[in-house]
Amino acid sequence: MSRKGGAGKTTVAVNLTLAARAMGVRAVLADADPMRSACEVLRGREGSETLLFETSAAKLFALTQAAQRAGADLLIIDTPAAPEVDVAEAVKVADLCLAIARPTYIDLAAAVLSVAVIQRLGREGLIVLNQCAPQRNGVEPPQVLKALEALRFASLPVAAVTLRSRIVYQTAAAQARSVLEMENGGAAAREVRDLFSHVWRSLNGEATAPMRTANDDLRRAGLDLKLVPTA
User: Fold this and answer.
1) Within a domain: 185
2) Total domain count, the chain
3) Is residue 115 part of a domain?
4) Quick check: 130 pLDDT over 80?
5) In what order do the strands lie in the sheet with 27-31?
6) Is 17 helix (H, G, I), strand (E, B) or coil?
7) pLDDT range class, residue 223, cuts 50, 70, 90
8) Does any domain span residue 229?
9) Which of 146, 155, 161, 168 could form a disulfide with 195 if both were Cys (CB 3.0 to 4.6 A apart)?
10) Are the beta carbons of 152 and 213 closer than 8 angstroms?
């Protein structure tokens, strides 16, 4: 989910769904966004009729029941950015909500709105930073560090896996494929695979790697700042 367009929620939803399938999980994708971006990406893909379902917020509960009866292990929902009532319907049926945000002020403000909806409805959530600049010599760019610092107030954990801005995402989307299918050994594929593994373990109640905090990355950058740990 993202309350702001352009954050990359559809790209994340598509790639997580296809990563799940590549790892043996029977996953399906529900496109509940009236823009139908996921449908545009996957429509030409072989087997899309069993992979992708066009739906609306009002039909999500019925779709989750149908997916379970059909033997699906995982249903990933690409939500609309608005209205809030439609976003809330998706949150209500979710076991885990992923708030997608780029490391910009406007995106982070939208992520806080997403967090508010998740918390109000009593659901579990995770913030995923997307389209971040790559690290240099193992050090996060200042923009990413500032985003992590800001998110320590968001009351939701930030995923230990950060998705970077990489051309392969656009190349894969143009061919109705995932980054795993384009460059299975590449950095983008590794990031998506790691993010899915973390999400899947969380959904199944398994121990997961500790969440990252701004403190962790600031210490790596050699900055002597005292920050409140992520709640």
Assistant:
1) yes
2) 1
3) yes
4) yes
5) 52-54, 27-31, 74-78
6) helix
7) very low
8) no
9) 161
10) yes
